[in-house]
Design a protein that fits this description.
By secondary structure, the protein is α+β, with helices and mostly antiparallel strands. The chain has helices at 24-31, 49-61, 84-93, 122-127, 134-143, 159-179, 216-223, 227-231, 257-268, 290-295, 299-311, 352-370, and strands spanning 9-12, 37-43, 71-77, 103-110, 113-121, 149-154, 203-208, 236-241, 245-246, 250-251, 282-283, 317-320, 331-334, 340-343. It has 2 domains: 9-35 and 134-370, no CATH class; 37-127, Glutaredoxin (3-Layer(aba) Sandwich). The protein is built from 12 helices and 14 strands.
């Protein structure tokens, strides 16, 4: 897997009298439910009592069973019929001479494609902290207490590079938190806030130690996007917002002042595209009581309203923002387990905010001339 590099799509509503000015990070926190990750358990006979208890633990934690984790669990006996996607996955897995059943694959959807986040024996899965880890718990805590975005830094074995990227982020995010204003119009029709969490321009850095056994699921997930970089001593940087939505996996050597500012301005800008699937990023597997923490006693009512708001939307006019030269086009490869992985050499957002501002100004000027 490689960086997402998903070109952003701006949605303009030609007749929006009350355009939404809620920042992307806050809109995502209150209105976007995390995408569900699939955990497929391949087996060829009955599970042991301990293995079945583990599978039951995963199922109980899932959204489907009113749990706090964005996971869906499937048990697949290899002797039974499989749907096409699972059949292809198993066909590729079965070629591994060292594969031991029961075997677990955790998958999610990234840019419309199925990505294998993690794979291993069920015994490895029982040790891998699939549902939660200290870093993911801290990430959820920060997002639920008003952090606009949390920048994960997956450290490499080069401490000088780790220190340099953390210092760069600390300095630039502090400046940006002071420069970016709260949008005017918050609270007006179409731009309401639904939780009591303070609306702040607040950013933080969270370092992840790849040697921490409790973080191996998250380490494997992020490393999978840039294996060469991490193997070459290059830290990875991942801005996360909303309910654990990772915007991009960025090798530290590609990170500079301009990219940090571009990504931050996007996250803090008005949510021009309320439809979640038309926004960049992917959702990390996390355990968090999002609705309860956001809406308290009204959690169920607000949750249903937010789902409707996020899925029913007036037909937009789509204006794609070019991602740069032809070298930045996205291609895909099939990985060893049959998943499709995005490939891309550079960032996707440079110049995006400038284009957006220019489009908005043109619309406003055109309207003024007509009136």
């Amino acid at each position: 897997m490689r960086p997402l590099a998903i070109p952003i799509v701006v949605v303009l509503l030609s007749a929006a009298a009350n355009a939404c000015v809620v920042p992307v990070f806050r809109y995502a926190l209150e209105r976007w439910r995390p995408d569900v990750c699939d955990a497929i358990v391949f087996h060829d006979g009955p599970l042991t009592k301990a293995q079945q208890a583990f599978v039951q633990q995963l199922q109980t934690a899932s959204f489907k069973h009113n749990g706090p984790t964005n996971i869906e669990v499937y048990q697949q006996n290899i002797a039974d019929n499989m749907d096409d996607a699972v059949s292809v996955l198993w066909e590729n897995l079965s070629r591994q001479p060292s594969l031991t059943l029961p075997y677990v694959v955790v998958r999610s959807t990234v840019a419309g494609q199925v990505i294998n986040n993690w794979r291993g024996s069920i015994d490895d899965a029982m040790k891998a902290e699939l549902l939660a880890s200290p870093a993911r718990d801290e990430l959820g805590r920060r997002l639920l207490t008003g952090h606009s975005a949390v920048w994960l830094v997956l450290k490499s074995d080069n401490q000088d590079r780790n220190d340099a990227v953390v210092q760069l982020l600390d300095e630039q995010l502090k400046l940006l938190s002071q420069r970016i204003p709260i949008p005017e119009g918050i609270g007006l029709p179409g731009s309401e806030l639904f939780s009591d969490i303070p609306l702040l321009m607040k950013f933080s850095v969270l370092e992840i130690d790849p040697a921490d056994d409790r973080e191996q699921f998250l380490v494997d997930l992020l490393t999978g996007f840039e294996p060469d970089s991490i193997n070459n001593g290059e830290p990875l940087v991942v801005p996360v917002f909303g309910r654990g939505r990772a915007l991009e996996v960025i090798p530290a050597k590609q990170l500079d002042v301009g990219l940090i500012e571009d990504l931050t301005l996007f996250l803090c800008g008005a949510c021009s595209c309320q439809v979640k699937e038309r926004n960049p990023g992917f959702d990390v597997l996390m355990t968090a009581h999002w609705e309860r923490e956001l809406f308290g006693e009204d959690a169920e009512e607000f949750a249903s309203q937010m789902v409707v708001a996020a899925t029913t939307f007036v037909e937009p006019v789509l204006v794609p923002i070019p991602s740069g030269s032809s070298k930045n086009e996205v291609s895909v490869d099939i990985d060893k387990a049959g998943a499709v992985s995005p490939r891309h050499p550079g960032s996707w957002l440079s110049g995006g905010m400038i284009c957006l501002v220019a489009i908005v100004i043109a619309i406003v000027l055109g309207h003024s001339m007509k009136t």
